[in-house]
Specification:
eight-stranded antiparallel sheet, seven-stranded antiparallel sheet, 22% helix, alpha+beta, single chain, 7 helices, 357 residues
Length: 357
């Protein structure tokens, strides 16, 4: 946490510190989400302010160290509701939404949750967002963002990183993907790219994607580079994946085979024209970067006697998430559990059991 966060009428509470194994004490029910993105630690802080509409006001901060910038952006985008645009500026990816703000910078993902939507609280949330943008060291955007933004001229806000189980395929990890459909469109077309160790591994992985798409549809001819197209049995959309050098590129959910073909050809040409600098960066994540367990598979063990986490009050796992702006329960001061922005339909929080973010 940056020093001296509290200004004016706000005062700082006690900083909470949690490891990947103990963060469930603070965010019961959501720890698995962040662990799936390689969480290293969680630090929390509440800033208590003056009364707002007759009730105490506060801003709760949660700072997740996710080890790498791609994990931070992946977690950030997974919690960004559909249709909410983000800003990418000087190493920061962020947005504000009602009484909250969300920031991915460097290998940190940081959430700022205000107690209500009063102008004073919203202003304090935005002030803290600016403080963290200045105080946290920025990093170069991951190579997949440079590929889609610089080579294909797509907005960085359309790009995300999927650490595991992309498209609900158990084999699909370390995937960068970009939305190709307008936000107000009923279509859901995406382009994706995966870096592999060598051409042989890329060819084998492209075959796995083909088999995965084929499990949901029927053959629909061949595309660029001999790519097998698959037409979805229920959605009548087209998907396919192609190996080129040591990368796999693909299109999922194209509304027509002509659009799928055009986008795949564009991807293949972009890979062929990669500059040396980006080729050097475009490598697979380490084999040891796998999560220790599948998201949501098991609850972590209770903290041992003497563990600092044991002193933190556990959130109630049966408590529903009220709408944004609802203050926390009186017996859990400083908890953000009751002030989560509501999960948007189709978001990971709304799709329990999904590993794609």
């Amino acid at each position: 946490m940056p020093a001296g966060l509290a200004t004016g009428a706000y005062r700082e509470g006690k900083i909470g510190a949690f490891t990947a194994d103990t963060m469930y004490v603070k965010i019961n029910g959501r720890a698995g989400y962040f662990q799936a993105f390689g969480a290293k630690s969680l630090h929390t802080l509440s800033l208590e302010g003056p009364e707002s509409d007759g009730a105490p006001s506060s801003v709760d901060i949660e700072a997740y160290d996710l080890g790498e910038a791609r994990n931070a952006i992946g977690a950030y985008n997974g919690e960004r509701p559909p249709g909410v645009a983000s800003t990418v500026d000087q190493g920061s990816t962020f947005h504000a939404d009602r009484n909250a703000a969300f920031l991915a910078r460097g290998h940190y993902y940081i959430r700022f949750i205000g107690s209500d939507e009063s102008p004073a609280v919203v202003s304090e949330v935005k002030r803290l967002l600016d403080v963290f943008r200045s105080a946290i060291p920025g990093e170069e955007l991951p190579w997949g963002f440079a590929f889609f933004s610089d080579r294909l001229k797509l907005p960085a806000s359309a790009v995300t990183y999927v650490k595991n189980n992309a498209f609900s395929f158990g084999f699909a990890r370390d995937v960068y993907k970009a939305s190709l459909s307008p936000a107000d469109s009923k279509d859901d077309m995406e382009a994706f790219i995966v870096a592999l160790a060598d051409a042989g591994a890329a060819k084998a992985m492209a075959s796995e994607y083909t088999d995965g798409f084929a499990s949901m549809g029927k053959p629909a001819g061949k595309g660029p580079g001999g790519t097998p197209w698959v037409e979805d049995e229920f959605l009548a959309t087209f998907s396919g994946a192609s190996a080129i050098e040591r990368w796999v590129v693909g299109v999922r959910g194209a509304p027509s085979k002509a659009q799928a073909t055009a986008e795949l050809e564009r991807l293949r040409q972009a890979v062929g024209a990669l500059p040396d600098e980006l080729r050097a960066r475009a490598v697979p994540s380490p084999a040891g970067d796998e999560p220790s367990a599948e998201y949501g598979s098991a609850a972590p063990a209770a903290p041992a006697a003497g563990d600092p986490a044991a002193a933190e009050p556990a959130s109630n796992p049966t408590q529903g998430a009220p709408a944004a702006g609802t203050p926390p329960a009186a017996d859990t001061p400083g908890s953000t559990e009751g002030r989560e922005p509501p999960a948007a339909p189709g978001s990971p929080a709304a799709e329990e059991g999904s590993d794609e973010y």
